[in-house]
Amino acid sequence: MELLKINRERFKSVHSDISEGSEPALRFYVLVAVSTLIASFGLISNSTAVVIGAMLVAPLMTPIFGISLALVRGEPGLLGRALRAEIVGVVAAVAMGFILGSLLGDFDPTNEMLSRTLPNLFDLLVALLAGFAGAYALVDEKISPALPGVAIATAIVPPLANSGLCLALGEVRAGLGSFLLFFANFLSILIIASATFIMSGMAKRYGAKLEREDYARRFGLPVIAFVLISVFLGHSLIQIYQKRAIAKTVKTTLNAVLSNMPATLLDDSHHYVEGDTVHIMASVHSPKILTPTEVARMQTLLSQQLGMPAELVVHNVLSHNVSSLGSVNNIIARKLDGTFTRSSSNETLQHIAAAEQVIRDDFAIDNSMDLIRVEYLPIGKRKFMLAHAIGFRLLDQQEIKDLESRVRKATGDDAIHLVFNSFQKSLRDADGTIRYGWIMGDQDTPEIRERVQAVRHDLSSIFDGKDGFELQSVNTTYLDGRLHFLLEIAGPELYPGQSLKDLESLLSEKYGQPMDFYAWSHIEAVRGPNGPLPMREFWRYFQNRQKETLPKEIPAILEASSQ
Q: In the prediction, which pLDDT does 2 show?
């Protein structure tokens, strides 16, 4: 090839440069040490920029060119020096990585480290191209400035440093994988550089050609090793493709199932194959914990799609997608153009979105209720919409009937039955439970606040252990120019109406202001030797009796239960 032919002057210059760079001198080993340390710190800190810096400093590529040139020209002296420099440099790089890793102790493997433990055929092809580029850059003085880029592409020192670090962590298999990556690069550069030097006319005598016997004798062992390692790395590449195919099937299958669940999405998934079974760990974000039955369905579907048994474990993270139209849309992933991929909407999800919107609009008027989520539960021919709600009160039948009618109208489906799973919440302060709607608001002036506190004090005195009734909470509001008191009373029976009237007359007369009193009775009593007691009074009695033993016994019970 005329493109690669060089003249005698360039030949001498290239030979001199390679010979000097392959000399096992002190400066060579200093650069090996420096580049190994830089590479090790870059790998441990997961810094790609630092690792690239180590590639630029590393001197181990030049002795490989020296070995190639020595084999092409049949120069035992150059071959011996280049081999000694390369072997000692490789051993030193691995040893320094091991020593540094041992001194640093137990550090976590990084992505930069993991990416160099599983070489494949692509790494071999990159090394071939980089080796050719390096040899060609040496031969042609016009493109010699490209050599730094070649040094980055070949990556000689980082795999060796990574091998030492992995061995320091006790990861022998990963360390061997990293060394295999170096060895693949070494063989690729050796063979392609030799071929480049031959085509450039750099044989033993300028312009001479090698016979077939020379090729077999000098390059037989490297070529055989290269073929063997190519087969091995090709097998690794096939395994990577198989792993990616499984990962893609897992992701596609799980996304197809989860897209039918409101506000549920697949965050990530990992798998490994053991025997004939695929073990899968999936991280799923959803507004509710998935049931074992739902996971079993997904596992069965995965087995069918993969064509082999699958075992699925779901790491379920509770989350909600919040938007102005409810939380039914599922965002699958972010695309390269910055937009979001959304799951395709179906009729079920559209009905859920419509139901959420109707209920949220209604609850926005009545601040006592909040909607958590809506689920679709088909049972036979009936379509149940299960709405999970929380509030200060429970919805009555008429409210649910009206909401159901509006949901049917919004969806156009009269077969929908609306069911509420309601949780009641409460607010408490020093005076007891605060009931929704019983708040003073703008009328909470200092004068009225003082009057209310005085009435509360009187009520506490009136109910102090009398007739088996206990005043649990007092709620107050101001309406139509007068104070209204809601008394929550616990006792063995309904609080007598006459007692309530007497209480109202007594306090209205005392303060010279009409007041209304309402009794909310909680029938709860414990009958003992001394007659009925309210439950709270009963608890106080036994707590006071046992206050010396409870602090010792309860921690012991809690400690035993956690074992």
A: 47
What is the value of pTM for the model shown?
Answer: 0.49
- On the question of pLDDT at 95 being above 90, the answer is yes
Query: What sections of 386-429 are H helices per DSSP?
Result: 397-411
Output the CATH code of domain 347-425: 3.30.300.20
Q: Phi/psi zone of residue 522: left (φ > 0), alpha (ψ -120 to 50 degrees), beta?
A: beta
289 Cβ contact partners less than 8 Å away, ≥ 6 residues apart: 316, 318
Which residue matches tokens 């194959």? 273
Beta strands 310-318; 531-534: pairing state: unpaired
Render pLDDT for 46-63 as a digit per residue (tens, 0 to 9). 888 888 878 877 788 888
CA neighbor of 3 nearest in space, from 189, 188, 201, 203: 201
Pairing mode, strands 515-523 and 482-491 = parallel
CB atoms within 10 A of CB 289: 11
Q: Which two tokens stand for residue 426?
A: 């409460």
End-to-end alpha carbon distance in the chain = 78
Q: Does domain 8-210 match CATH 1.20.1080?
A: yes
Residue 378's φ and ψ, nearest 5 degrees, are -75, 125
